[in-house]
Amino acid sequence: MKQKKLLYTGKAKSVYRTDVKGKLIVEFRDDITAFDGGKKDTLKNKGSYNAGVSAFVFSYLEKNGVKTHFLEMLDEKRMVVCELSMIPLEVIVRNLAAGSIVRNYPFKEGTPLKPPVIVIDYKDDSRHDPMLNDDLTVALKIATPAELKRIKTIARKVNALLSGLLAKQGITLVDFKMEFGRQGKTIYLGDEISMDSMRLWDKKTGESLDKDVYRFNKGDVMVTYNRVAARITKKPGAAAKKTVVDPKKAKPKAR
Known about the structure:
Layout: E1 3-9, E2 13-18, E3 23-28, E4 31-34, E5 39-42, H1 46-63, E6 70-73, E7 78-82, E8 85-86, E9 89-96, H2 100-104, E10 112-122, E11 131-132, H3 134-139, H4 145-167, E12 171-183, E13 186-190, E14 198-202, H5 212-215, H6 221-233
Antiparallel strand pairs: 1-2, 2-3, 3-7, 4-5, 6-7, 8-12, 9-10, 9-12, 10-11, 12-13, 12-14
Helix pairs in contact: 1-6
């Protein structure tokens, strides 16, 4: 497979076309940002840590019945995915009150949210990703009521699976962000699931194990990412090494 024209550049990932129809390459760069890009740096190995964790999580979710765009890893930073028509929504599942929900609403940090709260934002940096409700989402023709229902169902399933997986490693999934896309009439989980998109706390100490370390200068974020990636994948140092999924075992996608 050959990497071809650059299709899209985000804050920390680049997406390329390939010579295979329906397949794209996502490169996880070493860039890290916070506060809508107000704070940014380039940190060695950051891309490989997030790519390795995303590949591990996507593979785990696929095995448990969640359709994702993940196909295989080309190397430690480049992921092959099926091409989707992305839905401009950020779907956040919150299990504990933290971050913006504490700043904007009268919640005390760490308060359990039962059932988990699903928040949907409009993915638009120029508007600072404003929150949407179902009526606005439908009025903007972003998704149909049936698609919204399906997205929320998938989000709850991913939350249950991921919370259970991380709990076994002594990690609390506080909240996390997902993005979705369409292939025909089917909804797939896309983008990434990594330390950049999850808020994680150590179950024993309450220590931050995610991008909050970078946001709020809580320590060496790359030391944290390396350690957390190893805990999640259960492979010491695995995130910094080549992680390859056998393409013969990659679940084929309907075209």
